[in-house]
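Quick one: structure tokens for this chain, please?
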Amino acid sequence: MNSRIVITGIGLTSPLGNDLATLRTNLLAGKPNVTTIKPRYMDEVPAGVCDFPETAYQGRKDRRRGTRAGSISIFCANEAIKDSGLDLETADRSRIGIYVGTTEHGNVETENEVASLKEFNYDVKYWTHHHNPRSISNNPAGEAALNMKITGPHACIGAACAAGNYGVIFGAQQLMLDEVDVAIAGGVSESIHTFGIFASFKAQNALASHADSNKASRPFDRDRNGIVVSEGGCLYILERLEDAQKRGAKIYGEIAGYAVNTDATDFVLPNPERQAECMALALKRAGLKPEEIDLISTHGTSTPEGDPKEIEAIKTVFGAETKTYINNTKSFIGHAMGAAGALELAGNLPSFTDGLVHPTINIDNLDPVCALPNLVINQPREAEVKYILNNSFGMLGINAVVIVKKFCRD
């Protein structure tokens, strides 16, 4: 990599809390937060719901005009800037870029408008004039740019459930290309507000169910039965190392390597060979051997087909007897779709300083096919963590891997 890219700020909202400290505390305590909601046309389903102050950084009028994904982006971007210590008043806002990974954006607004139109006998004169800016694919990043008066580039990266990782990758690349001096990068999701995603997973027999919603998301468990859909967001402040050091910024970690590839084999079923190739390429770019990775943050969505494929890929790269620790965050909050990779990475970054690996929960009966020696179950594990490999895989075969290293001054 030509430039060293570091993380200097984190802004997030998740079902486990609205800041990194709260998220981390709940992960280490083994406390999930999955509730139930009732999507349009459906019975109650488990879901991960965020509770953050939507008007903390925007007025009520702007919130009504905008989208849930936009409000998540605005909250996370402002929190990330505040956390980084950057002063927007003195910054060159034309040199700041916003890069937001998304999955489903636009569905929510269209579904809601169609449902509302039914009440008016489908007379389109009642269709909202806000629909187009609400539903365009760059909306979440664009709303944040508008809110923060950022005049540099903004973009949404549509990469299914690999989008959170891809947002981080894209932001790092733009810094290395000298397109921007600061990248606000990561992913957001408003998935729970569209009934279509629940209906589709249910039609695929891939929607989780359990009498206790907090136990519905159970990656690698023998009795797993599908995905818990969640919302959330996590945006990072990325900077070139020399810029961060010049202003005395705190540094959460350094981007050591990354990779993106495509299965090119199926609409929804993952390809472990391509997943393994993606991890191997990220390691190669980072100049690392598999045994140098201390923690793998797995994608593991709790589907019968998907979890074993990822474990197979990990075994291919790291070996069946790997000493690398392995965990999963979706067991706590479900699958935050476009935000998943970014949120899951954030929950693991404190391992660099607190020397703990948060557990995977809800594994009551480990599926032998998913067993690996250092899968951390139910209780945190003490460990010296210098390198984290973060997996995110998505539909249409998109795979994205990010490796972050503990920052050390040379």
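The first strand starts at residue 5 and ends at 13.
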